[in-house]
Write a structure and sequence with these properties.
Strand content: 15-25%
Radius of gyration: 22 Å
Distance between the termini: 35 Å
Helix content: 10-25%
Largest sheet: 8 strands, parallel
Strand order of the largest sheet: 3-4-5-8-9-10-11-12
Structural class: alpha/beta
Shape: globular
Number of strands: 17
Length: about 425
């Protein structure tokens, strides 16, 4: 991930914003057309977010009630909402707004977020059809004149997705028009921009192997940044969520694979707790997503993953931080499931997490470090976490020998037998 860790004005302040943005020969007026809602934060229980889609059709009433009435702080509608309904795999913008209307009708105070990938031109969108029929120059080409593609996550060799050419002013204006239309609908309070961590210059976030000159790579990165700046102007009183990266103008981010960073182990847990603590200090809104360490896991959120990521979240959490743990982004992969811990009293943290680091030795030689964390909350809830980072046979190995949430009501979240004694 590319972390642009820049402090920003308090989310409660209202900076002076120029709504007119110039894209070459185009001037586009970008500003929120109605008062948007911010995420609903409280320490009463674990603060949570919702982010999914129901591909088979409109949200059914059971799911609408679940999202609207179970204390979720905000809800993002994903790209494949109702994709199986005619027009199949098309008109995603309209279908997302239809789902947003369903949620707003059930809970007018629930902030609803519009999903759009900032890099990949998913074919489900009207924007894709517009580019295909009238403006193919909006798709990125390399220095040889060949289109640049990114493989769809989980897809095969044939699942190639065009990349937006954000160095092109007209492409940026068309992209931002989608967000402006979502804002104008009156049922959307912000946007989720996926692939925020894509950096062409560094070859990060899917940009590795782009056969372009350094100048063109830098121009794409600059245009990508301008897209986020434009989104911040459109939803200047709402929320703009960048996935896996920070932008100075953007007030929120997601940490999509908290602790394991898609690596299949917990090697990123120490760093991710530190990143979450930093984001809290600078006042950024953060969504923390726990997920199975291997793709294709048919369990919505295995107990060990839930226990470890919930403990890590609570250790780093601050105001405007939100948690969820699921297998993927379909409503049926955990977004329709309730964990009893979500209803337990939590209370504000007594203080920041305590963190000690101890050197580990074997036969008198260094073999790694032990990280120990602890934190207490107003309800009497206590969180404990131990992370060992070792070198075994020249290989870095991370293990989590202890992860416990000792709730004030007497419940214990944690599979390790030591939790019973520790709590």
């Amino acid at each position: 991930s590319v972390h642009v860790q820049s402090d920003r004005p308090s989310k409660h302040s209202r900076p002076q914003i120029n709504c007119n943005m110039k894209f070459g020969f185009l001037i586009l007026t970008l500003c929120s057309s109605a008062q948007s809602l911010r995420p609903i934060f409280s320490w009463a229980n674990v603060p949570r977010f919702w982010h999914a889609a129901n591909s088979s059709g409109p949200l059914n009433q059971t799911l609408v009630d679940f999202v609207a009435n179970r204390g979720w702080s905000m809800a993002t509608i994903e790209k494949f909402q109702a994709s199986a309904v005619p027009p199949r795999n098309a008109a995603a913008e309209d279908k997302i707004l239809d789902a947003a209307r369903q949620l707003k009708a059930a809970s007018p105070q629930l902030p609803v977020i519009f999903y759009l990938n900032s890099v990949m031109d998913w074919q489900e969108y009207n924007l894709h059809d517009l580019l295909a029929s009238t403006f193919p120059d909006g798709w990125l080409k390399d220095d040889h004149g060949d289109y640049v593609y990114i493989h769809a996550p989980g897809g095969g060799e044939s699942d190639l997705i065009h990349v937006f050419d954000h160095a092109n002013p007209k492409m940026r204006s068309l992209f931002l028009e989608v967000l402006q239309n979502a804002s104008n609908s009156g049922v959307v309070d912000g946007c989720f921009l996926d692939r925020g961590n894509t950096n062409a210059t560094l070859g990060a976030g899917g940009a590795h192997g782009w056969k372009m000159s350094p100048a063109r790579l830098a121009a794409w990165d600059e245009g990508h940044l301008e897209v986020f700046n434009g989104a911040a102007r459109i939803f200047n009183d709402g929320v703009v969520i960048s996935n896996n990266a920070d932008f100075p103008s953007v007030n929120a981010r997601m940490m999509e694979s908290f602790g394991n960073d898609f690596h299949g182990d917990w090697s990123g847990l120490v760093d991710d707790i530190a990143v979450l603590q930093h984001e809290t200090r600078v006042g950024r809104i953060v969504e923390v997503h726990g997920e199975p360490k291997t793709n294709g896991d048919d369990i919505a959120c295995p107990d060990d993953v839930f226990n470890i990521t919930l403990a890590g979240f609570l250790l780093g959490a601050g105001n405007d931080t939100y948690y969820a743990c699921t297998n993927s982004w379909s409503a049926q992969t955990g977004w329709d499931k309730w964990r009893e811990e979500y209803g337990f009293p939590l209370g504000a943290p007594i203080a920041d997490a305590q963190h000690t680091v101890t050197a580990l030795q074997r036969d008198g030689f260094p073999r790694g470090v032990l990280h120990e964390y602890a934190r207490a909350f107003a309800s009497g809830t206590r969180v404990q976490l131990r992370i060992e980072q070792s070198v075994i046979n020249s290989t870095n190995v991370t293990s989590v020998p202890l992860y416990c949430v000792c709730w004030g009501n007497g419940h214990i979240t944690g599979l390790h037998p030591a939790c019973t004694q520790s709590c």
